[in-house]
Design brief:
The structure is a single chain. This protein has 14 helices and 16 strands. The strands form three sheets. It has an eight-stranded parallel beta sheet with strand order 7-6-5-4-3-2-1-8. A six-stranded antiparallel beta sheet has the order 9-10-11-16-13-14, covered by helices on one side. Strands 12-15 form a two-stranded antiparallel sheet. Helix 1 packs across helix 8. With about 450 residues, the chain is of the alpha/beta class. Bound molecules: alpha-D-galactopyranose. The site of alpha-D-galactopyranose has 9 residues, from loops.
Amino acid sequence: MKEKPLLLSSAPLIYAYMLYFLFSSAFVDIEFSVDMENKALQLVCLSVLNMLLLLTVDSLDNGLALRPPMGWMAWERFRCNTNCTEDPTNCISERLIMQMCDKMVTDGLRDAGYTYISIDDCWSERERDPVSGRLVADRKRFPSGIKALANYVHNQGMKLGIYSDMGTQTCKGYPGSEFYILTDSKTFADWGVDMLKMDCCNGGSGMEIGYETMGYFLNETGRPVLYSCSYPVCLGGKVNYKQVARTCNMWRNAVDLTDSWDRVYKVIRIYGDNSGNFLEAAGPGHWNDADELMLGDFGLSEGQQTAQMVMWAMWSAPLFISADLRHISAFARDLLLNKDLIAINQDWAGSVGHRVWQDPRVPGDDEIIEGWIKPMSNGLTAVAILNGSTYGEPVTVTKSPHQLGLRGNTSYIFFDVLNSEKYGPYNDTVPMKVRIPATSVVLFIATELQ
Ligand code: GLA
């Protein structure tokens, strides 16, 4: 059952949504008028709709994510495991979410700021309710329903996230929100959900309008729902990031992370290249989402886990753990709980960290050492140096504060955040010197001497 247009609403956006609904029906169902097969006409229609949206929607105004959101997300570690018969402790189910929620509380993650717990794909029945058109949670895996799960999570002082998709189907083939945007926004709010990750598989042309419309209807529910959008990835980054930032509290803009250094490093390179200047779109209420943290899983060495946490801190990227908290190493847990790293991640001084230099490991080589700096609101500067190279021998970096991208005129003291040691003062005549193992990182807070 598809949504019925709201003929009597005064909100122009709703009319835009009706048009979107009609036109996107045409694109998807392929049984609209012959005229609509004309691509040029379709494009004109979409442009008009976009303009209408730009005129009518001011911005996502939910007051959320004033600092980068933090939490836990099921996807990377538990994927689409629906086999509760053979793997009851790891399948996507209310039991799994409740156990993770409990661990977040007992391990101190909630109190450190990781307050969202987010279900990803594969949580629903394969079909919507035939009468109401509403999504239905899988009856075997979520027997108590999402509302009860949200209550449980809230009683633990946490917030519940849920997942949908701006296509007819999610990436794993479960029902998506296309044609059901209004219904789903109401359903999620009725259930007491606090965050929505809206994926973009099968989204098709014009999906930005769907995202903007969902943002509008979520606002209309009156429930503060953190809105996480994936469409910049599906549109290959060819989006207006300022507009994305007006629509979403956070947005994915790079490849999916997997439990491997190659993938983490790929994202670090994408963020370093900053193609389309997406870094500049970040700020209170709206953040670049570099995907989940792989800390505590199987694929990253301790140095690589540290590198991921440090880089995500430098970018003020949302910190969503995707590990089995029942079996996480003490190293990963300590890193996730590192107060200094969290403080850098949560600090907003008007800009996220930027890559300021790159040196080839050996001249002409593609293996690089790179430097990043992030201004802090206390006037100090976070300085990260990443040895992304897989060549085994540790590298020694020797650079003056100016060569590291610092602009002061005197000397700097460097505080090594990961080892709690102070070094310096460094200046143009006494450069900083540090040794960094392969695929690892050092992180300093630089203080300029007066
Ligand atoms: C996409 C997203 C992932 C995850 C899966 C679920 O690949 O990028 O984060 O949500 O879909 O199917």
